[in-house]
Amino acid sequence: MKYIYLAFIGIILVACNTSKPKEKVNVVEENPRVSELDSLSFFLDHYEKFFATNFNVSECPGAAIVIVKDSTVIYKKGFGVKEINTQDSVDVHTVFRIASLSKGVTAVLAGNMVDHKELQWDQNIKESLTSFDLRDRDQAARLRVSHLLSHTTGLYPYTYTRLIQQGLSLDQIIRNFRRKGVVAKEGVDYEYQNAMFSVIERIMENKTEKNFETLLQERVFDPSGMQTASSTFEAIKNHDNVALPHSYNHYSKKYKLDKLHKNYYNVAAAGGINASISDMGECLKILLGYRPDIISKESLTDIFNPIICTSNKDTYVNLWDGVTDSYYAMGWRVLDYRGRRIIYHGGNVNQYKTQLLIDPDNNIGICVLFNAPNPFNGPVIPTFLNYYDFYKDMMDKNSSGN
User: Which distant-in-sequence residues (6+ apart) come within 8 Å of 314 by Cβ?
Assistant: First the structure.
């Protein structure tokens, strides 16, 4: 128990350093009694208590959480309010921006298209999108779909973020790529991208003659039951149940209501999807492999297959206790964690903070959505892993009679 407690404190210290605002937060944990560890509901009760207590301490306006075990939603709940200084509570159908979790959903769509033989992972970009080019034309001609989805195109990190924030259309951004040089050969260096990642939209559209929004709706949202999911600014702006964004003032130590903005809807594949926590529960079922009608086991394995090592990068997941190595696959991070591999991604856009994790060995997944930056965002996933491993260890000991 002492080891678990110390490990937990270590997680809090490093994880809080990766979240904004960087305020000191006293995270409260109650260690469970071993004798009571006899059911999954016990684990859920204690994790909920951890989450609720520390969410309240953080003073973050709103949040939502869903946990799926095997093919079943075992926990789903909203916390706090959609808008500060109101009593308008977040519920399980309240829509958030899911930020960079959009990349993982886009990868699922890509896998669906691979299943339908409409896309290949080694498909040449320029052959599918003649308007695309780089200053290094030879490298541009060699780039493949897998390079886009794994951030290994060879460009410097966050290329053309400025153009995204200026509101340029994806087509305008793509035309500007011909001016950009590269910093590495394709496939050998990981540098995170948003604009380049979203080039996949035009490749998908050119093949199917349907726009990206329609493809998401028809191939992922509708068949999975993600009833309130969407990928446009208009959709979230006009929705009647939205967790509004809030910013944090480090001097006053107060939250204030922010505005929904259009940034990153012009690169929806990378950061423009909206969804409720109920929608994300259905998404977790897909990612756990229970919706082969949406993406086959083979394509799911492909998008989770590590492509590039990120262990030497300045990435917050490398600070998690228990993580020994990290990688990027296609739309997803892959972490070596305590002898097994887990799938993860986080997101941050328009003040929304989001996280999603799949533990394939234990057939469990979690998604957490916040409508404001907060120090509690950092410990949420590492603590979930710690609690679940502790629960599993105790259950194993109980079943063996020790």
Answer: none
